[in-house]
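Table S2 (text version). Query chain:
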Amino acid sequence: MHSNHKLMTTTSRRRWPRISPVTLLMGVAGLLAVVSVGVYRTKLMQLADIRAERNRLQAELAAEQQRSVDLRATQAYLESPNAVENEARKLGYGFADETRVIVVTPAGYVAPTPAPPPPPPARPQNWRVWWELFFAPET
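Corresponding structure-token output:
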């Protein structure tokens, strides 16, 4: 009985199919190719993200450079004598040799309405324009 049991276990054991070395090599190469494509795809996605970030930063840099140029122009104007004089005049100051005139409008004063413009000259009828063009005496 014991030998019969051994016989059953050997026959009931499943054998793996025999794989040739070429098939095994092709399978390993295919697996490496799939892994390489996955890694390559990941690197391409990272590269696209890096390029998008670079473009965003370049646009931000250009905007900041323009802002810097604008601020330098504003600074140059504010440091100029013209800006100082304009601001002093807004605050009511003037030069020592100037005479200041302050115009005071009386309370309740209403400015007169300006006269309406004169009407445009009447345009002659078309037939009269042509008549004068061809038959008017030469002057």
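Notes on Table S2: The chain is about 65% helix and 0% strand. The first helix runs from residue 2 to 12.
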